[in-house]
């Protein structure tokens, strides 16, 4: 690649047509200007100017290099302009969270997107580990986790918590549920289902529950919006955060079981430590916090 400093010196020289004036504009000495020119010519492998006494003419190769120098100036100016404008309604934001939280968050983002044509929001659902890795490697600007990562390269902000629920069909008998009842129905599994089972079922059925891998699985669904569907049709039971239940279109066809031991999922918003937040990222964080506050 051409040396950027030598290229700028040559571009200024062509525009002023004078070595002394170029030196003054660039706060250099005249021999310094000549040295930059000579080094650039060596790098190009051709003469860039033809001297005629105290004046000079730009060669064909010099014209091509001058055009490059002006193009680089324009690109750098555009870059400075873009960096200098911190518009909350322009640019991209990448966020990752659980599927259940995404179903609550996304509708709250639509009015913002509608009013900001230059804004691009990328919302991805995934498990905790994938979200944390994505924030660390820069794929996500923000992540919503269910626990504090306590990671040296992450800043974490506690948002609140939401209840982890055992979901039954609305027509299920309103009596204390037993583990045998659940096994008879069968588990509607999903990507986070095993972790939820180890959390909620373990404390409520300690004598019968022997691990998520031993549950009788009736169905498996990996789309958060469809996980409650089998249960709404009286097929099996499932385990979900309350947000995944309340956002379901057929909420009236579901019932949250009343268990002796209630469990909660914490919500933590994480970002890479030391990275200044842009205006659009700050606004995204505010919207996320508002949605999380509604779960408490």
Automatic annotation (TrEMBL):
Indicate the segments forming the HTH lysR-type domain, all copies: 2-59
Which InterPro entries does the UniProt record give?
LysR_HTH_N, LysR_subst-bd, WH-like_DNA-bd_sf, WH_DNA-bd_sf
- Which SUPFAM superfamilies does UniProt cross-reference here? Periplasmic binding protein-like II, Winged helix' DNA-binding domain
Q: Which GO terms describe its molecular function?
A: DNA-binding transcription factor activity; transcription cis-regulatory region binding
Signal sequence coordinates: none
Q: Gene3D superfamilies of this UniProt entry?
A: Periplasmic binding protein-like II, Winged helix-like DNA-binding domain superfamily/Winged helix DNA-binding domain
Keyword line: DNA-binding, Transcription, Transcription regulation
* TM ranges: none
Keyword Transcription applies: yes
Q: Which family does it belong to?
A: Belongs to the LysR transcriptional regulatory family.
PANTHER family, alphabetized: HTH-TYPE TRANSCRIPTIONAL REGULATOR, TRANSCRIPTIONAL REGULATOR LYSR FAMILY
Record-given protein name: LysR family transcriptional regulator
Native species of this protein? Meridianimarinicoccus aquatilis
